[in-house]
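User: Watch each token:
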Amino acid sequence: MFRETPVSLGNMNKVFCSQWLSDRQVVFGTKCNKLMVYDVRSRSLDAIPTLRPRAPWPGAEHQTGIHALQINPSRTLLATGARNSCELAIYSLPTLDPVCVGEAHKDWILDVCWLDDEFVVSGSRDSRLALWRAPPAAPLTPPHHDYVAPLAVRECRAGQKIRALTFNQRWREIAALTLNGYIHVFNAETFRQTLSRKLPSCQDLVCLATQESGMYAIGCKSYTLLLDCRTLQSIKKITSRYNGCGIRSASFRGDMLTIGTGLGLLMFYDVRAGKYLESNIHSSKTVTLKASRGYVFPDEEADGYNQVKYVPAIYTHCYDDSGTRIFTAGGPLPAPLIGNYAGIWQ
């Protein structure tokens, strides 16, 4: 029943992360270091100023863009990346006024997760996790903001380059995915590492999601892995059904796992039934939402990669509160290609 309304993003490069701010606004971050708000009703885009570093920085060409953004449980603060990709930025909501910049990491921040309304954790390619306390609403007049240090920094033992983080509320633990193929668990109360496990033959680990019951879903090159969070043992390998597809984003809503792929497809897996959602009309067919092409540059080279027709990768997707609308976004998978894709499904 979902129909896509494409969202035009001009010449922005690759949308990496997104969340609904309200029932009419979506906030998203891009590889070209833009933090944007899209108004669904007026179809307008607004740029939010990124927060400047205090120290001299190497310049825009050495940044990776904004890979992560997350709103705290009471929806009063937004944590994301700053202008320097190694720094954390916190804004107050709904005004999006700057609150502070967090300085600690030596390499790009690739994910963040809130533990509650004031504590937030960042994970970086420097293989470290940092725990921050958001200062109370800043008395400073915009565009000024505080610079803060973390409460604690932890090296991820056995881990190289943190790619994704999630907070498991039921078990009060933080799970981190590292690019050398491990999942690590930290106790959220003590901020100490309690468990690490090498994942079975996983290539290209990209995304991590938690179900309320405490199951982890990990997206990698050719399948999604479901893990029991108590033992970190594999419960199920969900093959992607499409060869060489690559899982780029994953999220749970109850027992439904939504998977965004590198082939421009959004798929739905029913954890309880143990199978992909099937069409009511064609019971043999899996329900997939196929993204529109978006924008890609240089266009003539786009179809040359792997000799297949170009489709955008879905790097991020998010449901609105009602679960009746999905914002999907991304762009080209090959690094040299510049482009973007965004759509609202309803």
Notes: Helices lie at 299-302. The chain has one helix and 31 strands.
